[in-house]
Amino acid sequence: MSVTLSVDEILSQILDAFKFETPELFGPGGFAQDFSSKTAAIGDRITAHIAKLPVVGDYDHANGGWKAPSQDVTTLIEDVPVTLDQLRCVTVSIPWITSQATKSVALGKAALANLGLALGKDVVDQVLARCAAGVSNSLPVAPGLSNLDTFDGTIRNQCNAQKMFPQRWGFISTAMAQALGADDRTRSKLFYDERCASEGFRRWVNVAGFSTLREYPDVTLAGNNVAGILGDRRLASVTVRRIEDMTDTARALGIPRVMDFHGLRDEESGLELCGISWQEGGTGDVFLSAAILFGIACGNQGGAAGSMSDNAGLKLLSL
User: Fold this and answer.
1) β-pairing, 104-105 with 2-3?
2) How many angstroms separate the Cα of 102 from the Cα of each of 1, 2, 3, 98?
3) Count of alpha carbons within 13 Å of 139, Cβ hemisphere only?
4) Cα 183–185–191 angle (5° rounding)?
5) What is the mean pLDDT of the chain?
6) Ranked by mean pLDDT, which of 1-15, 21-35, 124-138 comes out on top?
7) In this predicted structure, what is the pLDDT of residue 49?
8) Dihedral (Cα; 140, 146, 148, 152), 10-degree rounding
9) What pLDDT, on a 0 to 100 scale, did the predictor assign at position 36?
10) What is the DSSP string of 212-250?
11) Coil/strand/helix, residue 114
12) Is the pLDDT at 176 greater than 50, yes or no?
């Protein structure tokens, strides 16, 4: 049986597709990131840090001059507790009987991309669900009647009133994206630039105060009547840790190794994925899994309205 790609090459292609599906995890205007090569286990509690804006004060000669409005640097960081409660994986099997029939195993680029896209979409789904539960600010909208004025007027004004950071991201429903895309001003490159116009899902950059605004049909599954979730990088903090390779533990206990763990690190961001491969005894079937261990902190995390990073997010609710 000939295999056209090694496990490391397969995982590398999965990572590329994962990054394409989750630009908010890698870009400067997306989610807050806490990536580390340190190992952790599911259920571990991590303290992430989200930057806050300092307070501006007056020069007061009688009270220290320049020192008067000074702040302890630790007050410029919000400690956000994150529990690593998500261990998600996507797994494919290569049945022995199939390999004998074909004499070849060729996982094509399209199939590998689908694995990465599925894992990436799952992470985004988890983040949006947490955001819907952890954001108290909401705005009623009529998705089918939304246009550029809706985003550049009512929505932008509300985000500004909450003092969101200038760089903002947004996930909106298909109905809202369709209505926005039907506006002649967003259709014309003289006004705004739609990226990925050759792909199925709409995405705009630098429109109405948003660095990225993209169509995400499943945003409606994040909560009752949710038509969109908007925020800046403080709203969602995603903490990712490396999955521990248990083969050394098995070796120390004298247990024969039957699985291999393959670490994969994105050098630009530090995000860690893990590949797990094994052959099943008896059937001879081969399995390959790509996994990510992460935790999410969003908004007020069930606390009082306005607490933690609550004001960094806004829910759009369908009328």
Assistant:
1) parallel
2) 8, 10, 11, 6
3) 23
4) 150
5) 83
6) 124-138
7) 66
8) 0
9) 82
10) EEEE-GGGGGGSTTEEEEEEETTTEEEEEEEEP-THHHH
11) helix
12) yes
C-alpha distances (whole Å) from 265 to each of 49, 52, 271 are: 22, 29, 6
Q: Which of 269, 292, 238, 271 shows the shortest CA–CA distance to 115?
A: 292
pLDDT score of 318? 95
Continuous H helices in 89-230:
96-102, 109-134, 148-149, 156-161, 174-181, 184-187
Rg (CA), the chain: 23
Measured between alpha carbons, how far is 11 from 116 in angstroms, rounded to an integer? 9
∠ CA 35-203-317, rounded to 5°: 85
For the residues 214-232, what does the mean pLDDT come to?
93
Q: CA dist 111 to 11, 14, 76, 222, 258, Å?
A: 12, 9, 45, 27, 26
Please list, in sequence order, all residues whose beta carbon lies within 8 angstroms of the beta carbon of residue 44, skipping any fewer than 6 positions away. Answer: 83, 84, 241
Structure tokens belonging to residue 243: 């999955």
**CA within 13 Å, CB half, 41:** 2
Residue type, 149: D
d(CA 259, CA 264): 16
Which residue in the block uniquely carries the two structure tokens 């999410």? Answer: 296
Residue type, 85: D
Q: Which pTM does this prediction carry?
A: 0.80
Distances (CA, A) of 2 to 78, 111, 197: 53, 18, 39
Asked if 293 and 243 touch (Cβ cutoff 8 Å), the reply is yes
**Strand ranges in the chain using DSSP code E only, listed in sequence order:** 2-3, 32-40, 45-51, 77-83, 86-94, 104-105, 138-141, 168-172, 193-195, 203-207, 210-215, 226-232, 236-243, 259-265, 272-279, 286-298, 313-318
